[in-house]
Amino acid sequence: MSKKSQERELIKELRGIGHRLNPIIIVGANGLSPTLIEETARALSDHELIKVKIPAGSADERKECANALAEATKSMVAHHIGRMVLLYRKNDEPNPKLSNLVRFGF
Q1: How, if at all, do strands 49-53 and 23-26 pair?
Q2: Strand extents, DSSP E, 17-93
Q3: Which of 18, 39, 65, 97 has the most CB atoms around it within 10 Å of its CB?
Q4: Burial letters for 43-68: b for 16+ Cβ neighbours within 10 Å, e otherwise?
Q5: CB proximity list for 43: less than 8 A, separation 6 or greater
Q6: pLDDT of residue 72
Q7: In the chain, count of helices (H) and strands (E)?
Q8: Beta partners for residue 26, in sequence order
Q9: Does 20 or 104 have the greater pLDDT score?
Q10: In angstroms, rounded to a whole number, what is the distance separating the alpha carbons of residues 85 and 60?
Q11: Contact 18, 80 (CB under 8 A)
């Protein structure tokens, strides 16, 4: 299996898990503040896969915001639709009680 097809398969599985998640980070009027980035990084360390809501701005602005947040937290945008973004960052030692991937049998 090629690397590209492995990545597509991973994203497909992450999107499936993402449907069951509620957003735990909401980008407010302050945009990408250092506090928001820090909290997102902490959430990614705990949960590995998180849903982020970006309620304001045009579609391009929301996409740009999602990409900037992913870059700032060294994560990957697994899915982006409307105002919701799914961020993924693998944790080498996930906490089974907190990790969404472990919880949903990934």
Answers
A1: parallel
A2: 23-26, 49-53, 76-81, 84-88
A3: 18
A4: bbbbbbbbbbbbeeeeeeebeebbee
A5: 24, 25, 50
A6: 96
A7: 4, 4
A8: 53
A9: 20
A10: 13
A11: no
**Tens digits of residue pLDDT in 26-73:** 998 888 999 999 999 999 999 999 999 999 889 999 999 999 999 999
Grouping H, G, I as helix, E, B as strand and the rest as coil, residue 85 is strand
**Residue numbers of the domain that contains 31:** 3-103
**In this structure, what CATH number is given to the domain that contains residue 19?**
3.30.110.60
25: tokens are 């980070």
Q: What is the mean pLDDT of the chain?
A: 92
pLDDT at 57: 87
CA atoms within 13 A on the CB side of 52: 35
Structure confidence by residue, pLDDT tens digits, 88-103: 999 988 888 999 999 8
Query: How many structural domains does the chain have?
Result: 1
